TrEMBL record:
PANTHER family: ERGOTHIONEINE BIOSYNTHESIS PROTEIN 1. It comes from Pontibacter lucknowensis. The lineage of its organism: Bacteria, Pseudomonadati, Bacteroidota, Cytophagia, Cytophagales. Keywords: Methyltransferase, Transferase. Gene3D superfamilies: Vaccinia Virus protein VP39 (3.40.50.150). This is Dimethylhistidine N-methyltransferase. One of its GO terms (molecular function) is methyltransferase activity.
């Protein structure tokens, strides 16, 4: 009972590359330059992100893991209160945290199936394989898709009960308005009584946040730089990787962590895919990622504005990370 549904390719594989090329051309053509963090997650990027999650500075994963360990029994009771449900995990990745809930659901013999969704095909394949070994009885339907395409899956199961997870502070990688909009879209794909659990990284000491995105071992820098490597690999780019450096900064008023790739000199880059040249002046930066940090009231308000009812918040012991439970 274990399937993999690949919704990432449209009519043929080359369209993905065409879309990537178009986005890169657009982002490098504008001022200030930017590239979307959704392109971080090819096979290499997904591997690097797994290493990030294990870094001493990257507190987010540990905090959410420990809060889920502490509250999993209450979470599972809330999820399974009305019988069978689809547990939909948006941006599941390696599902390290969700696995705590899966174990608890199995232990409590609750009826459910698991629908992990992720942009990374390699991550979904590996997760499917791991779950087959660990829980051979569990019904798993892994979906390879971007968020919006993934939500379409929900449309086909409109009248079946759903619990949607959006964990790991993935909401933080949307700009504020886009994040609100995405939560509204999730709500529109649910029926009254369905549940939604949102993992948010809360505001805290700016030094702690900055260190998480600027680790001493340079893994985050490599993760950021992989975007240029990916452009070289897939779009025939000739980025000189020694000509750019990772730079991260946190704005404590806006609550946003921003990552950049900064050109260390005047240089030109050529992309075969677009047959265009892009020029960089010395110290010109490409914005590659935002990671927004929220306050608890901001988070409940986001849910409320989307039409959800706030149920409860589960916090880790340090109060730095929250899983917020909402009801449609
Ligand atoms: C996936 N996302 C929630 C991570 C974050 O914290 O914004 C991605 C990341 N970027 C740098 N380190 C981790």
């Amino acid at each position: 009972p274990n399937t993999l549904i690949d919704l990432s390719r449209k009519t043929d594989g080359s369209q993905d590359r065409a879309e990537f090329a178009k986005d890169v051309a657009e982002g490098l053509g504008q001022s200030p330059k930017q590239l979307s963090s959704r392109y971080f997650y090819d096979a290499k990027g997904s591997r690097l992100f797994q290493q990030i999650m294990a870094l001493p500075e990257y507190y987010l994963t540990r905090a959410e893991y420990s809060l889920m360990q502490q509250h999993r029994s209450a979470m599972v009771s809330a999820f399974a209160a009305d019988g069978f449900f689809h547990l939909v995990d948006l941006g599941a990745g390696d599902a390290m945290k969700t696995n705590l809930l899966l174990q608890e659901l199995v232990k409590q013999e609750k009826p459910f199936d698991y629908v992990p969704m992720d942009i990374s095909g390699s991550a979904m394949q590996e997760l499917g394989k791991d779950l087959r070994q660990e829980h051979p009885e569990m019904h798993v339907r892994a979906v390879v898709a971007e968020y919006i395409t993934g939500l379409k899956w929900l449309e086909q199961h409109l009248n079946e009960r759903k619990v949607v997870l959006f964990l790991g502070s993935n909401i933080g990688n949307f700009e504020r308005e886009e994040g609100q909009d995405f939560i509204c879209q999730i709500r529109q794909h649910l029926q009254p009584g369905d549940l939604f659990m949102l993992g948010v990284d809360l505001r805290k000491d700016p030094g702690t946040i900055l260190a998480a995105y600027n680790d001493a071992s340079g893994i985050t820098a490599a993760f950021n730089m992989n975007l240029l490597e990916r452009i070289n690999r897939e779009l025939g780019g000739n980025f000189d990787l020694n000509g750019f450096k990772h730079y991260a900064l946190y704005d404590p008023q806006l609550g946003v962590m921003k990552s950049f790739l900064v050109s260390q000199r005047d240089q030109e880059v050529y992309l075969e895919a677009t047959q265009e040249r892009y020029s960089f002046t010395a110290w010109e930066a490409i914005h590659t990622e935002s990671s927004h940090k929220y306050t608890l009231p901001q988070t409940t308000e986001m849910g409320r504005l989307a039409g959800f009812e706030f149920v409860t918040s589960y916090l880790d012991e340090e109060g730095g990370f929250a899983d917020m439970l909402f009801k449609a």
